Each structure stands twice: as C-alpha cells, then as structure tokens.
C-alpha cells in the first residue's frame, strides 16, 4: 500500500483529500498545515507521495520542495493548488504531478495508479561498477548500460562523487563546484534539482544508485561498488618494487588504465586528478620497463615503451 503525507494550510482541504486517498487505498501517514512540521516528519515517515499545496503563508510549496527532497529524495511530490499559474515552475522543479483544485476523484485516481505501477516492483539492489578512465561508464550486473542522463550536470555529479572515493561532500560545496558562475542561491537550487534527477533516473533504470545523504552532505557508498580509480590507486600503492612474483599483477594494473581520467569529458575540477593518475601510471610503466630490460625481454620492453610514449 502506498503511503502519503498531506501539506495544506486549509484544514478542510486536508480532510477532503485524505478521504479521497483512503478510498483509493492510500494510507495517509500525516497531515500538516505548515511546512516546518512536515520537514521534521518526512525523514521519519518516509512517504511514497507528498501532496503539497503551493500557495501557503510563510514558506510556500515551491520553497518547501527543495527541503523535502533533500531529506527524502525517494518521495514523489505532487503539487495540489487552486492556481494554474504555478504549473511551469512546478514542472521545472520536476514535480511528479500537478493537480488543480478542487481535486476530482477521477484525476486523483490516475495519479495514484501511475505511482502504484512505478512502486511495483521496487528498484532492486544490483552490483554496480563505475569506471572513470577515459570515459565515465556504469556497469550493472557486469553489463555496461547506456544512460540518457537528464542533464550534463547529472553526469558530472556522478563523476565528482566517484572521484571523491567515498568521502562526504557538503551539498553547498557541490553546488559551488558544479555551478561556479552562479550565486549560491541559484546554484543550490540547481543542485537539489540535479540530485533529484539522479535519484529518480536510477529508480527508473531499475537499480538503486549507491549514495548516502546525511546532515547536508552526500557521498558515494564505495563499499557497495567497484570503482576503477580506487582499484588502480590501491595497486600502484602496493606495487612499489617490481619482482617476478608481482610482474603479472603490475602488467594487469597497467592495462586497467584505459586513458586519462574522464578524458572524454572536460571538468575544471578534475585537472589535478588527471595529472595525479597519469603520473602514477607512468611511474609504474617505467618500473615495468626497467624490469623487462633487466630480464632481457626485448619484446615486452618495447611494448611498454610504446605505451609510455603514447
């Protein structure tokens, strides 16, 4: 059964909507006449749907949207309002739906049926692999998936979180990095929209993107994924000296380096990281070349010299 919370400054409107939702077998977990109480409750109740009035005193629905999505981005937000004038803004925020009051039961039924189809079955946890050398790619269950990212910034957010290697990053910092040309208010708004797109898109693709959000910070849950740059860093750290025992491991590590970090993308924030990984790669190549030269294996020496000069 779907669960919902309702936010509207008109008590009568709340009661009418609750009754109609219960007739459609939707459990109403809470009703709130102002936004602050709803903000406190959403993380606890974790509703499937939030029905949100737009025109409310104090914090209106459009302002409340960002905060609700930050706390519980999995929820679907449906704007319910007596005014058509907010429709464009609502859909720019990527609201799940927009219903004009008075809400007709037939219209509400269509919304609920759509969410029921999306909710069954839920997104499954699957093995996820993220590769950053040359081109950002994602593998699910060992198969590369072509993701039509909603925007370029969604893709860049994934790339930045991957390069963060599991460290928590404040959402304000992410907003500043991804939109350095905008003021904080606008960049912050863009970030929450992008974050919402990413969560929603992963659900649509049938897997749960491994992110963790806590107290205004997010990170990639690297303990649940395979990340090529972390594997590469671990290997080059351990391969300090090349010997007969580890030469095969060293050569495999070299082959993991498919190209410069995010080579087919251009992000200003990645320049230093590109240099770091390329320097480490070249250092390992030189060690392997030196080993094969000592072993008088001319063929392999030439092969790795060619890779060094590429």
Task: Write up this protein.
With 310 residues, the chain is of the alpha/beta class. Helix content is 50%, strand content 16%. It has 12 helices and 12 strands. The chain has helices spanning 11-23, 35-45, 61-71, 87-92, 105-119, 152-163, 171-178, 184-204, 228-238, 247-256, 271-294, 298-309; strands at residues 3-7, 27-32, 49-52, 76-81, 97-100, 128-131, 137-140, 143-145, 169-170, 211-214, 217-220, 225-227. The chain has a 5-stranded parallel beta sheet, sandwiched between helices. Strands 8-7-6-12 form a 4-stranded mixed beta sheet. Strand 1, helix 1 and strand 2 (27-32) form a beta-alpha-beta unit. The N and C termini lie far apart (58 Å). The model has no long low-confidence stretch (mean pLDDT 87).
């Amino acid at each position: 059964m779907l669960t919902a919370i309702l936010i509207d400054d008109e008590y009568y409107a709340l009661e009418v909507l609750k009754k109609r939702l219960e007739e459609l077998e939707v459990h109403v977990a809470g009703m709130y006449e102002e936004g602050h109480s709803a903000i406190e409750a959403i993380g606890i109740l974790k509703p499937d749907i939030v029905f949100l009035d737009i025109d409310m005193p104090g914090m209106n629905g459009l302002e409340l949207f960002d905060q609700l999505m930050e706390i519980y981005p999995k929820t679907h937000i449906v704007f319910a309002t007596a005014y058509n004038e907010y429709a464009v803004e609502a859909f720019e925020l990527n609201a799940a739906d927009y219903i004009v009051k008075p809400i007709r039961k037939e219209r509400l039924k269509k919304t609920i049926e759509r969410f029921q189809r999306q909710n069954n079955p839920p997104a499954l946890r699957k093995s996820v692999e993220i590769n950053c050398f040359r081109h950002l790619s994602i593998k699910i269950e060992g198969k590369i998936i072509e993701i039509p990212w909603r925007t370029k910034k969604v893709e860049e957010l994934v790339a930045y979180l991957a390069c963060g290697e599991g460290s928590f990053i404040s959402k304000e910092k992410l907003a500043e990095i991804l939109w350095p040309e905008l003021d904080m208010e606008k960049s912050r708004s863009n970030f929450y929209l992008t974050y919402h797109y990413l969560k929603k898109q992963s659900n649509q693709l049938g897997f749960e993107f491994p992110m963790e959000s806590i107290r205004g910070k997010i990170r990639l849950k690297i303990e649940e994924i395979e990340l090529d740059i972390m594997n590469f860093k671990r290997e080059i750290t351990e391969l300090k000296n090349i010997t007969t025992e580890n030469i095969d491991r060293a050569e495999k590590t070299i082959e993991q380096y498919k190209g410069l970090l995010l080579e087919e993308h251009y992000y200003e924030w990645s320049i230093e990281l590109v240099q770091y990984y390329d320097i480490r790669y070249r250092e390992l190549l030189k060690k392997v070349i030196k080993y094969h030269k000592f072993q008088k294996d001319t063929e392999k020496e030439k092969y790795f010299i060619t890779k060094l000069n590429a």
